[in-house]
Give the backbone structure.
Amino acid sequence: MVANFSAGGAAINQIARTAGANLHVVPLTLEHPTADFTQAPAMSEDAFLAAVRTGYETVPPKADLVCLGDMGIGNTTAAAALAAALFGGGGSRWAGRGTGVDDAGLARKRAAIDLGLIRHAALLHDPLSSAAALGGRELAAILGAALAARHRRIPILLDGFVCVAAVAPLAKLRADALEHALAAHVSAEAGHRMLLTELRLDPLLDLGMRLGEGSGAAVAVSVLRAALACHSGMATFVEAGVADKPR
């Protein structure tokens, strides 16, 4: 899929082109998977910080808007585990069907999350340690990119459940850390709406999307452009003479 993104054949390529957005694909050590978080931390501190740094350095300093999205195998499990670590509740609260697993697959997913939470219970008081223990490199890089955008005063659009879970540790560290962020949409993944509620983010769109790839964020760009055009170009009632009309 990463190769397909780079070649221009994925859905996100078409949506980004329609929205007038530039797509930048950042592969993250694809040849070295993270560890099984039921057995060990998914990433060492060094690996986690390296991924955060990659995301941070990817954000162009003069960007007008950054849309964040992801591509990862099994990463709704990692996102659900991180959400559970940050906001409480186990796999039964946060795990959804992801790419469409059956009932048995969903049960295994929930059990893995609960095992991970037990395994790393001593770390769960620390949002960043939780992200390293339970997340993935793509989540860490999204966190880094959101942090860079905050430092550079660049607004961001967040895509789906994985993307929002990735930046949630920032909100746990500091209440205003996501004031530059908008939730582009609420996806069909079970935990996404709950996570947006926890972070007090109202989604711009509710279309039942579940593709990932940053597709929801890219679709929302057109809504944002329309809002900015109205804000900048519309005449006020006074300017249009509307307020002076007899009733």
Remarks:
- Residues 78 and 168 are 13 Å apart (CA to CA).
